[in-house]
Amino acid sequence: MAPSSERFRQMLCYIHQDDLLRPQLLVGEIMLLAAHLKLGFKVTKAYKMDLIKHILSLLGLDHRYNVPTGKLSGGQKKRLAIALELISNPPVLYLDEPTTGLDSSSCSSCVALLKKLASQGHTIVCTIHQPSALIFEMFDKLYTVVDGHCMYQGPVRELVPFLADQQLVCPSYHNPADYLLEVAVGEHQRDLNELIHAANKKYYEDVDRHRYMSSDDMARLVESIKENMGGKAVVKTSEALAAFAAAQFSSFDYVKPSPQELALEEIKALSGGPESADPDLLEKNLRPQPQPLAKAGELARPPNAIRSASFLMQYVLLMQRILICAKRNYFLLLARIFSHIFIGVVFGYLYMNVGNNAQSVLGNYVYLYGSTLLLVYTGKMAVVLTFPLEIDMLTREHFNRWYKLGPYFLSLISFEIPFQSLCTAMYIIISVHLTGNDATDSFRIYYFMLLGIMASLSAQAWGFFVGATLPTKLAVFLGPILAVMFSVFGFCTRYIDITPLFRWMWHLSYFRAGFHGALNAIYGMDRPFLECPETAMYCHFRSPKVFLKYMMISDVHMSDCLILMGIVIGVMHVLTLITLWHKLNKR
Known about the structure:
Number of domains: 3
Membrane topology: Multi-pass membrane protein
Order of helices and strands: HEHHHEHEHEEHHHHHHHHHHHHHHHHHH
Distance between the termini: 19 Å
Domain ABC transporter family G: 129-233
Domain ABC-2 type transporter transmembrane: 314-522
Strand content: under 5%
Helix content: 55-70%
Number of strands: 5
Oligomer: single chain
Shape: elongated
Transmembrane segments: 330-352, 364-387, 408-430, 445-467, 474-496, 562-581
Largest sheet: 3 strands, parallel
Subcellular location: Membrane
Strand order of the largest sheet: 1-2-3
Structural class: mainly alpha
Number of helices: 24
Radius of gyration: 33 Å
């Protein structure tokens, strides 16, 4: 099976070097969430709970079931990351430096755990730098890379004899791993090209030695596999063995450690043996065979077929995760709410009672501009860091087939859009009442609120796109700059005063659409004359139509503004989804 094939990718999981866990979730909650996503809902919850307890007990985390992941130690976080992937019982686990950031005791425990998993049928592949002698001896096979070339590959126990054959004698008191690194960096004045050539020669000699198997070796191999699989009959050809192994690996049957290790070369040698498959025997082995829960820790495979959660259930589960995290980390949400309330009160008292005053039309004009500017900035900057902070976690969970991109993105905007709309509505209700813009027709306030929400959501969509496209520092820097560029049109400069080179930005500016729409909501739609104070000698803008005509927005329709902002929201969300898909699927 080629490593690049889709079937092979479905059989492996990748565990990142960093502990990519959401600190708000409890250990039991995140394990149950992973079980729901990976196993689907045709598997009973009772089985999932048994599986979770079994895995946590296997990894020594059963006593931390109700502890938030943010309060776990470094070694416990590493074990929890492994436990999350063991739910789907992947045949192959890739780990990127699993001992990084751990103390010596935690390092030994982590590698011992990986050794135990390897003895239970998993293939464990991990990178490691400068392991101690104790940890180094736990590994079965070693692959050393220097300058992009293999300097040694083979059993760990054969490393020291191999180096001795190359006139590189490792002292008995020296850690072989440290000695090998010293050779790799050139401390022993040895030509690495000769060592690389010798390693390749040794590898091909080992391959030739195990290319074919005798009948006795074949019988021993089959008996070993049969013992690992619980005494069931097994097939005897390479193709049938591959299919049989894939079926067994997906059966969630955690078997007991085998007393003897099967060499990889022996399994490869099956390709040179006789090809006499028994279809009836193969079908029998591939058919699910339920087993009762074993007292010794063996776990029965589920009674129903294993299928990951559907699109809808993935969306529901991810939405539930977002709500739990938001409930337990509510400070940021409260800050967003109170900031809108506070600025609404400040703006309200700053522009108090300008709404129906013909002498204060320009003051109300500035209030509407400042409101649109506030809603655009809060909408964009509140989410611009969402993807830069979550992209590593999203990449790991998506690669390990927890969920698809669609449900994740849909659940995210399903939370952010209503929340930002709520914040916008609270600001407008407070500020509109204090400024006196609600003194006339109430439907104008509803239109103003709708336009403010659409402007804020347009900026939010831009924030998602900028955050998904650019690195963190660049996204924080360019986000406000883009908002300033779009905010220029419609307030400081009239359309006839814009250089023809930049008039296209006037037509595409969602800020201009929101601001002009708000002006039409307040002063358009045949609004009657404004009140002119008795102390004023003359009110030039007593007629709202005169003001709109003077600002050259009398022919702007709110429907056009709403359509433009709706298009911006849809297009930017689609572009964000495409950008994320490209990042998650690039090779």
